[in-house]
Amino acid sequence: MRALVTTPDTKFGLLLKEAPDPVPSADQVIIEVKNASLNHGDVAMAAGAAPGRVQGWDAAGVVVQAAADGTGPEVGARVVSFGPNGAWAEKRAVSVKELAVVPDSVDLAVASTLPVAGVTAARALHRSGDLAGKRVLITGASGGVGRYAIQIATQEGAHVVALARRGDGLAELGAKEVVADLDNVEPVDIVLENVGGPTLVRSWELLKTGGVLQSIGWTSMEPAVFQPYATVTDPKSLVAFQSGNHYASDLEYLLKLVADGKLKVDIGWRGSWTEFDEAAAALFGRQVSGKAVLDVD
Ligand SMILES: NC(=O)c1ccc[n+]([C@@H]2O[C@H](COP(=O)([O-])OP(=O)(O)OC[C@H]3O[C@@H](n4cnc5c(N)ncnc54)[C@H](OP(=O)(O)O)[C@@H]3O)[C@@H](O)[C@H]2O)c1
C-alpha cells in the first residue's frame, strides 16, 4: 500500500511512499481509508517520530476485511476509526473497540473529523459534572476540539465563553460570549483549556471555588508561570486530561448528533493527502477554522 511514512527528510516529517500492508490482530478489521483528519497532536508527533512509521489517529473508510474473532462490522461497512497510529495510509488495521459504523446520511470526510477532537470535547465536558446553567470557558475555541465543545456544552444547557483569536462563526455554534482575551471575563465554573501557558494561568484565576479546569492541550507551547499562592485557595480542581481509548460508543454518540443535524462539522482545509505539508502548515499557522481533512486519493 501507499502511506505517509515518517522520515527526517521533510519539513513535517512525512513522505508518501510504499509501506507494508497492516497485519490485523483477531479483534481488528482492515479498512480501506477514504479520508483522514489532522489533529494538532498527531501532526506534531509525526515530526519527532522514528523513521519508517505510519502515523495518524483519525480515519474513515470502508471495511475490506472483517475481524477474525467475528466481532464488529462486515465487509463493505462504512466506518470511522481511532488508533494510536496507522490512519495516514491506504489501509488501516483497527480494533472494533475503536470504530463506529457511519450512517448513510453522513459523508466519510465529515465522519473522519470526529474521533480525537469530538471524543475529547465530549469526554472533557462529561467528566466535568452537570453542565446545565454553568459558565463554561473554552480556550482555543476556533480549533477542532473547541468547535465541538462549544456545541455539546451549549446543547447541554451551559453558557459558553469562547476564547479565540479567530472568533468568526463561534456565536453561530452557540457561544454566548466570544472573546479575544480573558481580561474582562466574569468567573466561570468549568474550563476546557487547550492553549496552555499564560492562558492556563489566567483561566485558573477565573475559575470559581468548586470549579474544574480540564487541561487538555498546550497549543501555545509557552510555559505557565503561576504567582506564589495562586493554587492556595478555596478548593477547585486542575485536572490532567487524556482522551484515552475505547472510542466506539462516543463515536456512535457523535455520529448520531451529526446525522440528527445537532453537530455542525466545520472543515477549514480539505485536499489530497499528497498535499499533507500544506495542510500541516495551515494548521500550525492558525489558518484552519475547524478541521483539516485529507482525501486519500
Ligand atoms: N489531552 C488529550 O487527550 C487531547 C486530545 C485532543 C487534543 N489535545 C490538544 O488540545 C489542543 C487543541 O487541539 P485541536 O486539535 O483543537 O487544535 P487546533 O485545531 O490546532 O486548534 C487549536 C486552537 O488554539 C488556538 N491557539 C492559541 N494559541 C495558539 C498557538 N500559539 N498556536 C496555534 N494555535 C493556537 C488557535 O485559535 P486562534 O488562532 O483562533 O486563537 C487554534 O484554533 C492541542 O494542544 C492538542 O494537542 C489533547
Tell me which ligands are bound. Answer: NADP nicotinamide-adenine-dinucleotide phosphate
Largest sheet: 7 strands, mixed
**Element string (H = helix, E = strand):** EEEHEEEEHHEHEEEHEEHEHE
Helix content: 10-25%
| Dominant shape | globular
Uncertain spans, ≥5 residues at pLDDT below 50? none
Q: How many distinct domains?
A: 2
Alpha-carbon distance between the termini?
12 Å
Tally of DSSP β-strands: 15
On the 0-100 scale, what is the average pLDDT? 97
Rg result:
19 Å
Number of helices: 7
CATH architecture designation of the largest domain: Alpha-Beta Complex
Computed structural class: alpha/beta
CATH class of the largest domain: Alpha Beta
Tell me the name of the CATH homologous superfamily of the largest domain: Medium-chain alcohol dehydrogenases, catalytic domain
Concise overview:
GO terms for molecular function: NADPH binding; oxidoreductase activity, acting on NAD(P)H. The protein has seven helices and 15 strands.
List strands and helices in order, with pairings.
Elements: E1 2-6, E2 14-18, E3 28-38, H1 40-48, E4 58-65, E5 78-82, E6 91-95, E7 99-101, H2 108-111, H3 115-126, E8 135-139, H4 144-155, E9 159-163, E10 177-179, E11 188-193, H5 198-206, E12 207-215, E13 237-240, H6 248-259, E14 267-272, H7 276-284, E15 291-295
Helix pairs in contact: 3-4
